[in-house]
Amino acid sequence: MARLRSRSASIFPGLLLLYVGVLLLLHNYRGFSIGHTLWRWWPLILVLWGAVKLYERTSAARAGEPASARIGGGEVALVIGLLALLGIVAGYEYIREELPGRLKDKIEINDIGDQHEYDFDVPAKSVPADARLTIRATRGDISVRPSDDAQVRISGKKYIRTWSESDADRMAPNVSAEIVPNGDGFEIRPSGSSGTDSRVSLDMELTVPKNASLTVRGEKGDVTVSDLSKPLSINTANGDIEVRDNGGDVTIDNRHGDIKVSDTKGNVKISGHGGEINVSGASGGLTIDGEFYGPIRADKIAKGVRFVSSRTDLTLSQLNGHLETGSGNMEIVDAQGNLSLRTNSYDVTIENATGKVKVDNRNGRIELRSPSVPKEDIELTNSSAAIDLSLPENSSFEIVADCHSCDIDSEFSADSLKKTSIGSDSSHLEGRYGNGRGLKITLKTSYGSITLRKTSAETPPTPPTPARAPARASIPKAPAPPSVAKPPQN
């Protein structure tokens, strides 16, 4: 009697469960984007499935059990079910984070009928010069500027959407704003049906004491604040934010909209989700914590930049130039002090970083250019992309460079600087260049390349030689006039 062989179970379901479980854990504890990963990398499941079945079929053929490696209905159902689970998680991410803001700007259930416009004014209210003020708004733009006296004034436009003008005229008197005491400060808010009727929006223009501490909370509408001297906090759900010439710290939490901050005397902190960010001229530091899909620009940030998202972790000690991210590129120019960056899928360009540089990237090129001789260590780590480092030809450094499945090309040569091949396709460069120890350079990548280039040393411009003053031509003196005899005095 032939001995019956037991059919071996496939290992693919277990591997697939491990893969999906890791993705869900990263999503829960690290803010990992399931949607982005699923969109780009879902074919890996098919690749893994095929590789496992090929291995199992080969093993089964050797064991005389070719039928044991067939794809079963249970495996197909498992793949479809887990893909559906990941799709549900990705859909929930999109609905929770992106869809509300994008749809709110385009589809409003109550955006029907005709819009009617009315002016409104609120009587001025005296408050302390350093009052704590809170503005709460539902729909409409908010504009705040300073006042020379200790009063709050409100004026603006109210918009009412109805089918007929008579209905709007009847609603208009009940639409306004008010200033009421709130704890140790004052609250400015819509009154009447302004805050409850979605057919009504209120654009408010406010003047407040320059030394007031201001908090703005809005649901839908743009916010503009300028020329205040104390800390400012803005929290909005939908709408653009602009802050100019603020004398204190600025804290912004936004969900959907662009943010622009210029010429502030304190720190700037931005969090949430949104579009474009543009910050310039801050005497403090800049912190960005969140997911922003538009370009991010920062110029002249005296106390550095901290940028944290699911994709990027960046720390700059000081930014005398500019930082810009967008369209798969990140550019950093004139970063004084230390620079630390961990990111992926960005082409990173760094120019004139004077402190210690540490970059860890994946799937994007790293290019570092130093016009002057660097004095601090450089560490660049990459994967599946190239590293390009340009240094002045009079630099001194110790280097260790490893290129897995790629080559190293160096314009620097010295007896103590040696390049060796590892296997048939990998390279290693190690040694010293120049006089003295210099800095330490560590470069590592795979499936890309490493290039070291020479640049001309930056020399200070020679001061112009002061031009000599032209010699004065000798001018002959005019002859003295003849003396005239004075008449005798009586």
**Cα-atom Rg, whole angstroms?**
35 Å
Net shape: flat
Distance from first to last alpha carbon: 171 Å
Counted by DSSP, the helix tally is 6
Structural class: alpha/beta
Q: Main β-sheet: number of strands, strand sense, barrel status?
A: 17 strands, mixed
Got a strand count? 33
In short:
18% of the residues lie in helices and 45% in strands. It contains six helices and 33 strands.
Structural summary, described in words:
This protein has 490 residues and is of the alpha/beta class. Among the domains are: 12-97, no CATH class; 110-228, no CATH class. The chain is built from 6 helices and 33 strands. α1 (12-30) runs parallel beside α4 (73-97) and α2 crosses α4. The longest helix has 25 residues, at 73-97. It starts with 11 loop residues before the first helix and ends in a 35-residue tail after the last strand. Mean pLDDT is 82; it is low at 1-8, 100-110 and 459-490.
Q: Key features?
A:
single chain; 490 residues; alpha/beta; 17-stranded mixed β-sheet; 16-stranded mixed β-sheet; 18% helix; flat; disordered C terminus
